[in-house]
Each structure stands twice: as C-alpha cells, then as structure tokens.
Design brief:
With 143 residues, this protein is mainly alpha-helical. It has two domains: 67 residues, no CATH class; 55 residues, no CATH class. It has five helices and no strands.
Length: 143
C-alpha cells in the first residue's frame, strides 16, 4: 500500500512482546529508508522527516521520524480469523480509494499470488499454516 503495510506475522514461542518486535522492525527499516533517501539526495524529504521528530525524541538523539508512532494489530488465534485477515489484506489494494490492481494476484507487493495460485510472487512467502508447528526462537530465516 502506498502509505501503510499489512502483514501476517507469527511468533508463538518468543519472549519478546509484539510491541518490541514491531518497534525493532520499524527502527531497522527506518535506518535503511533514511540511508536510501540520503543516497538519492532527497534533502527536502530528509528535512520533513527531521521536522517530524518530537522535542522529547530529539533530546534522546533521534534524527528522523519515518513511521507513525503506533500500529494496529489483531491477535489471530483461529484459522477462520486468519483467513478473514488474509482475505482483507489481499483485497485491500483492489478496493476503495486505492484501486491499485484489478485482482489481488496482480498487486506486486501482495502474497495473494502465492495463496491463490501457488505461484511465487515478488516476495518469498511461506504458508501461514506452517507457523502452527514452528518454534521461531530456533528457526532460521532464508533470504
């Protein structure tokens, strides 16, 4: 999506809270985004990101505000609820104000192609049903 992301993540056996996991992810993505903006010489964008930092965060040494300080999450505890969320995620780019693709499988940044056709898309995806038996504290992630 142009201004937000939908993901289905799983970590059943992890001592860290979802707030910590998401916060760390956003922090590392922000470093990479700022680096790429600097490399592109987009100084006006960097200025806007600097202006978004609160005075409290400036005192702590924060230089840029890349993401909104909050996120919305749903605790997915049933296969039915997970399917509902996947359907929403896949249909979202094709609806409302976005209309980014005719079909969910046509949206480049979606896992819909994988789930609906079995074909790989732009990003590597594995089926969310596999999370039921994975101890993510011991799993290795392929790139």
């Amino acid at each position: 999506m142009p201004n937000h992301v939908h993901v289905l993540i799983g970590f059943r056996q992890n001592a860290k809270s979802i707030n910590t996991v998401i916060g760390n992810g956003k922090r590392f993505m922000a470093y990479e985004i700022v680096k790429r903006i600097e490399q592109a010489g987009e100084h006006s964008t960097l200025t806007k990101l600097m202006e978004g930092v609160s005075s409290r965060d400036q005192k702590r040494g924060k230089l840029h505000e890349v993401f909104e300080p909050s996120f919305d999450w749903k605790d997915c505890r049933s296969n039915r609820f997970i399917k509902q969320k996947l359907d929403y995620i896949h249909d979202n780019p094709c609806r409302g104000k976005w209309n980014l693709a005719e079909s969910p499988v046509d949206y480049t940044h979606s896992s819909a192609r994988f789930y609906l056709t079995g074909e790989p898309g732009f990003y590597k995806v594995f089926h969310c049903g596999l999370l039921e038996d994975i101890d993510l504290t011991r799993a290795t992630i392929e790139k």
